[in-house]
Design a protein that fits this description.
Elements: E1 13-18, E2 23-30, E3 36-41, E4 46-48, E5 52-54, E6 60-67, E7 73-83, E8 87-98, E9 103-108, E10 113-119, E11 126-131, E12 137-138, E13 143-146, E14 151-158, H1 161-164, E15 174-182, E16 191-198, H2 202-216
Parallel strand pairs: 1-8, 9-16
Antiparallel strand pairs: 2-6, 3-5, 3-7, 4-6, 7-8, 10-14, 11-13, 11-15, 12-14, 15-16
Length: about 220
């Protein structure tokens, strides 16, 4: 009886990305000869720009892999290349997902509104809460629930120049951290930070405050 051996594993492909981010990785593939065929990879974290490939005369080509992690940590998957000319190749793809890196700064001027787009990259529905301890920046969103891959548009407003006069010890520029946290216990140490920066004329704020005090006297 003949035994058919599965193809040996090729050199692993390593991809690293931050949770909540995505990128296209151009992976060089070197086959034995000129080949045409198809690529398959079964994981929600990776998408192929094109499942069909064709090498140059030397058997080389670059494979575009779109990587958006749906997990935190490490995992591995198998990617297969099948060609009539060269046969079947199996590539281990080693995926790493890092804790989210901060985004921003989002620049504001008094009275201006900015929108933060937050995506639930996980494969389950989760609840999230928002925290911002700088009262100069206002939002109506304190918490929300998102289905997998759903996006929440969060509007944040910097108070008007008139209302800035109420903040006696305001430093310029005004900086803050808008933080989003998942309520699920398994993500207790994971948070998404968005840096906010309010640009304003410091002397104007001081004058406005002094004028408001005089009016109250």
């Amino acid at each position: 009886m003949l035994l058919v051996n599965s193809p040996k594993l090729e050199e692993p492909i390593h991809l690293t990305e931050y949770l909540g981010f995505s990128d296209i990785f151009k992976v060089p593939i070197n086959l034995a000869r000129f080949s045409k065929g198809v690529v398959t990879v079964k994981t929600p974290d990776l998408k192929l720009e094109n499942i069909h490939f064709e090498t140059d005369v030397y058997g080389h080509f670059k494979l575009n892999l779109f990587y958006e992690p749906t997990f935190l940590g490490d995992k591995s998957v198998i990617m297969e290349l099948i060609s009539e000319e060269s046969g079947k190749y199996k590539y281990p793809v080693m995926l790493k997902s890092l804790i989210p890196k901060p985004r921003g700064p989002f620049i504001f001027r008094p009275g201006q509104v900015q929108t933060i787009n937050f995506k639930n990259v996980f494969l389950k529905k989760y609840k999230f809460i928002c925290i911002c301890r700088e009262p100069v920046f206002l939002t109506k969103v304190s918490g929300f629930e998102l289905a997998p891959k759903q996006v929440k548009n969060i509007q944040i407003k910097m108070v008007s120049k008139k209302n800035l006069a109420e903040f006696k010890f305001l430093q310029c520029p005004v900086t803050a951290n808008f933080r989003i946290i998942c309520t699920d216990p398994q993500f207790v140490n994971v948070h998404w930070d968005f840096y906010l920066k309010g640009i304003l004329d410091a002397s104007q704020v001081v004058d406005d405050y002094r004028n408001s005090v005089k009016l109250k006297m």
